[in-house]
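Design job #97: recover the sequence.
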């Protein structure tokens, strides 16, 4: 019902900036929020941040707060993750997700993209 595709990943140096994009198509009426998750080797997938589709309010994990910024373009059904001052520990596969807001403003992912690799070297 909903299709997601990420783009913009790649290999960068520590301290560099990178913006990854996620375009959503299909039954977009069921999308109330879009978010980003990441998974590093040997670790569980973790929440990075999410954005309320209608209000534009954003919620970021403490680990990236101050460095990462989430934004959206409603007309293009696209969400962006601007990553600044990248660190080696940011290396992971970054996944886009579409879903809704549950109890206590928790973002509940319902659909996932295939992911895009972000590698940060020292």
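Job complete. Output follows.
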């Amino acid at each position: 019902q909903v299709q997601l595709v990420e783009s913009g990943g790649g290999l960068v140096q520590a301290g560099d900036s990178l913006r990854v994009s996620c375009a959503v198509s299909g039954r977009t009426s069921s999308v109330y929020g879009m978010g980003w998750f990441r998974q590093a080797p040997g670790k569980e997938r973790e929440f990075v941040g999410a954005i309320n589709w209608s209000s534009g309010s954003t919620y970021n994990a403490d680990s990236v707060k101050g460095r990462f910024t989430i934004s959206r373009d409603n007309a293009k059904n696209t969400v962006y993750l601007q990553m600044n001052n990248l660190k080696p520990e940011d290396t992971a596969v970054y996944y886009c997700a579409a879903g809704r807001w549950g109890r206590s403003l928790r973002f509940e992912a319902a659909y996932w993209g295939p992911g895009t690799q972000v590698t940060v070297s020292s």
